[in-house]
Design goal:
By secondary structure, the protein is of the alpha+beta class. 34% of the residues lie in helices and 22% in strands. The longest helix is centred in the first third of the chain and has 18 residues.
Length: 126
């Protein structure tokens, strides 16, 4: 019997195990967290330069004003594997948190472009 996603239970289990192993080997720092519909982990920041330069490249002034993503419109795309970019800005006396789902493909706003830039800087994949 096939589930709504097109996988049998055994195929879905194999796919999840393969994704977990890939994440453990290539991406994650620390424990992988699993929910009913997701697997996530923390990713380390890779930089060869000074932290102050990396921080400025993250555009901190713009990050403080990012709005919530709003509608997630992937148009005709079917996204099986995706990324969430969560940005938490903390300063004495204030905090700002936002999440963007697949900002590289499912969102065409300036805010999504900024979130995608953060994703690229953190992942060091410019």
């Amino acid at each position: 019997m096939r589930a709504a996603g097109g996988f049998t239970e055994a195929e879905a289990r194999r796919e999840t195990n393969a994704n977990r192993q890939l994440m453990e080997k290539e991406r994650c720092v620390g424990k992988i967290v699993e929910g009913a519909d997701y697997i996530w982990c923390r990713v380390s920041i890779k930089t060869n330069g000074p932290w102050a330069v990396l921080f400025e490249d993250l555009l901190p002034d713009e990050l403080w004003t990012l709005p919530p993503q709003g509608d997630r419109n992937c148009e005709s795309l079917v996204v099986l594997d995706g990324e969430t970019v969560r940005i938490d800005m903390l300063e004495q006396g204030r905090r700002h948190s936002v999440e963007y789902w697949n900002p590289d493909i499912c969102c065409r706003t300036v805010a999504c472009a900024i979130a995608d830039h953060v994703r690229n800087v953190v992942r060091n994949i410019d």
